[in-house]
C-alpha cells in the first residue's frame, strides 16, 4: 500500500452544537442463535413479530393470497459441506462494555486541530476492570490494518470511511459498531493489538513500535480499505524475512529493469471453485448495491415531491374553506385540510426514519463487501508470492542440475565433499527457496480455509440481520398506515 495524504488535517470536522448520546453496547454473552439452514423459506413466525402484528396477517385475505411466507433462497457451497467454525469459537466470550463519548478538538502547535474520541471500556480481562483512553480517527484505521495483518482471511470490521467524518453522529456510531463487532468475535477480542488500542496511554509510540516489529504496514494506510499489505515477517518468520527484505522483497527480482525486461512476473490463477464463485458473487453484489444506492436517492426525491404535493393540496383546501360557501361545508373542508397537514408531517417523519434505516443497512453491507474483498486480495497476494517463489525454485533447480554434483545434490543431507564451492552456494539457495515455498503454500492453504469459514459465518449473519430488518420494516409500515388512517378518520 502506498502512503496517501491521510492526516489529521484531512480528517478534521466540525462537531455539532447539540450534545450527542453516548454510544454503547454491553457484550456479556457468547451464545449464537443457530439458524435453520435446512429450510429455504422464511416464515413470519421467525421474524418474532409482536402478537398485534401477527394478528393482522391472520385475518382473511383474498383466496389467491393464502401463502403466508416469503421465499428466500440461499446459495450453498457446491460440495454441500457445512464449514466448521474455528476451534476458538467454542471458547466463552469475554464481556466488554465499550462506550465512545463526545469527541474534543485538540489544537496543535501549528494552530491546527485534530479530533480525539474518548473510548471507555469495562471488562474483567483488564487489571483495573475499566479503561479510559482517547483515540484519533487514524488510530481506528491502524487497528483495522493491524488486525488485518494478524488474522489473514478473517473479515475485519471496518472503520467509517473518511468521506463520512463531517457527519459527527454517524462517524461516532460506526466507530462504536466497529469496536462492538471486534469485541464480540471470539478470536479478535483476544488480540493483543485490540487490547493495546483499548488500554494504552502511550498509544502513538507503542502502535508505531508494533507496526515496525510486525511490518504490518498499518501506518502506510491509504484511502481504499480493501487494499492489503502482506508482512514478510508474518509470512516467512523473522530470519528469512530479514534476508528477503534486504534484497527488496519477494517481488524485487522482477522489478529490476533488466530482469523485468527479460522475464515477466509469474501470474497467479485461482483454482479453488468456491473462492472463484464467491468473488463473482461479490462483484455482482457490489454492482447491485450501487444500483440500490441510486434507487434510494430516487425514492428520497419522490417522497419529498409527494410531501410537497400533500402540502399544496392542504393549502388549496384551506383556500376553498375561506370562501364560506356554507358553514358546514367550510368546517369539513378545513378539517380535511388540517388532516392533510398532519398526514404530511407523519409521512415526512416516516420517510426520514425509513431513509436513515435503509442507508444504515446499505452502508453496513457495503462495508462488509469491502472487508470481504480485502481477504480475497490477501489470498491473491499470497498466491502471487507462491507463483514467484515456485518460479525461482525451478530456476534454481535447473541451475543446480547443470553444476558438477551427484544425483543427491538437491537434498538437504548431501555431503559437503561431493559439491564444488559454487554448487554448495547454489544448493543452500535451493534449500532456502524450498523452505520458503513450503511456508508460503502452508499460509496460502490456511487462508483459503479461513476465507471459507468466514464466508459461511457471514452468510448466516446476513440472513439473521435480514430477518430483523424485514421484521422492523413490516412493523414500521403497519404503524404508519394505522396512524395515517386514524388521522383521516378524524375528519368527519
Automatic annotation (TrEMBL):
Residues 1-20 are annotated as: Disordered. Residues 93-201 form the PX domain. GO terms for molecular function: phosphatidylinositol-3-phosphate binding. One of its GO terms (cellular component) is endosome. One of its GO terms (biological process) is protein retention in Golgi apparatus. InterPro entries: AH/BAR_dom_sf (IPR027267), PX_dom (IPR001683), PX_dom_sf (IPR036871), Vps5_C (IPR015404). Pfam families: PX (PF00787), Vps5 (PF09325). Coiled coil: none annotated. Gene3D superfamilies: Arfaptin homology (AH) domain/BAR domain (1.20.1270.60), Phox-like domain (3.30.1520.10). This is PX domain-containing protein. It comes from Naumovozyma castellii (Yeast). The gene is NCAS0A03300.
Amino acid at each position: 500500500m502506498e502512503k496517501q495524504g491521510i492526516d489529521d488535517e484531512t480528517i478534521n470536522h466540525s462537531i455539532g452544537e447539540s450534545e450527542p448520546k453516548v454510544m454503547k453496547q454491553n457484550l456479556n454473552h457468547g451464545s449464537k442463535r443457530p439458524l435453520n439452514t435446512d429450510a429455504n423459506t422464511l416464515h413470519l413466525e421467525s421474524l418474532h413479530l409482536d402478537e398485534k402484528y401477527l394478528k393482522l396477517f391472520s385475518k382473511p385475505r383474498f383466496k389467491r393470497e393464502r401463502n403466508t411466507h416469503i421465499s428466500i433462497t440461499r446459495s450453498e457451497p457446491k460440495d454441500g459441506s457445512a464449514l466448521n467454525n474455528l476451534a476458538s469459537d467454542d471458547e466463552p466470550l469475554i464481556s466488554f462494555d465499550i462506550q465512545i463519548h463526545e469527541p474534543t478538538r485538540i489544537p496543535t502547535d501549528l494552530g491546527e486541530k485534530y479530533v480525539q474520541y474518548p473510548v471507555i471500556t469495562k471488562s474483567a480481562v483488564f487489571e483495573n476492570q475499566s479503561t479510559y483512553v482517547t483515540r484519533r480517527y487514524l488510530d481506528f484505521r491502524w487497528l483495522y490494518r493491524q488486525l488485518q495483518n494478524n488474522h489473514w482471511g478473517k473479515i475485519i470490521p471496518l472503520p467509517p470511511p473518511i468521506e463520512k467524518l463531517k457527519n459527527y453522529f454517524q462517524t461516532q456510531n460506526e466507530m462504536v459498531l466497529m469496536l462492538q463487532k471486534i469485541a464480540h468475535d471470539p478470536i479478535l477480542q483476544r488480540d493483543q493489538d485490540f487490547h493495546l488500542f483499548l488500554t494504552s496511554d502511550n498509544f502513538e509510540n507503542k502502535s508505531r513500535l508494533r507496526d515496525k516489529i510486525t511490518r504490518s504496514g498499518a501506518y502506510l494506510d491509504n484511502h481504499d480499505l480493501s487494499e492489503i499489505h502482506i508482512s514478510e515477517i508474518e509470512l516467512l518468520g523473522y530470519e528469512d524475512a530479514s534476508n528477503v527484505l534486504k534484497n527488496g522483497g519477494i517481488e524485487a527480482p522482477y522489478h529490476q529493469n533488466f530482469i523485468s525486461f527479460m522475464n515477466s512476473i509469474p501470474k497467479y490463477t485461482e483454482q479453488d471453485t468456491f473462492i472463484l464463485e464467491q468473488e463473482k458473487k461479490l462483484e455482482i453484489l457490489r454492482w447491485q448495491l450501487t444500483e440500490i444506492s441510486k434507487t434510494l436517492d430516487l425514492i428520497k426525491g419522490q417522497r419529498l415531491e409527494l410531501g410537497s404535493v400533500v402540502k399544496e393540496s392542504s393549502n388549496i383546501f384551506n383556500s376553498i374553506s375561506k370562501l364560506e360557501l356554507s358553514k358546514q361545508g367550510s368546517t369539513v373542508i378545513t378539517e380535511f385540510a388540517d388532516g392533510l397537514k398532519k398526514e404530511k408531517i407523519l409521512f415526512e417523519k416516516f420517510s426520514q426514519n425509513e431513509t436513515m434505516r435503509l442507508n444504515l443497512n446499505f452502508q453496513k453491507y457495503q462495508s462488509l463487501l469491502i472487508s470481504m474483498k480485502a481477504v480475497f486480495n490477501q489470498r491473491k497476494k499470497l498466491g502471487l508470492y507462491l507463483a514467484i517463489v515456485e518460479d525461482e525454485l525451478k530456476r534454481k533447480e535447473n541451475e543446480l542440475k547443470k553444476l558438477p554434483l551427484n544425483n543427491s545434490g538437491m537434498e538437504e543431507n548431501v555431503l559437503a565433499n561431493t559439491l564444488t564451492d559454487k554448487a554448495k552456494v547454489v544448493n543452500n539457495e535451493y534449500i532456502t527457496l524450498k523452505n520458503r515455498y513450503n511456508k508460503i503454500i502452508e499460509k496460502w492453504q490456511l487462508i483459503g480455509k479461513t476465507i471459507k469459514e468466514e464466508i459461511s459465518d457471514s452468510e448466516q449473519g446476513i440472513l439473521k440481520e435480514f430477518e430483523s430488518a424485514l421484521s422492523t420494516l413490516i412493523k414500521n409500515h403497519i404503524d404508519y398506515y394505522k396512524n395515517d388512517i386514524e388521522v383521516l378518520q378524524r375528519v368527519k
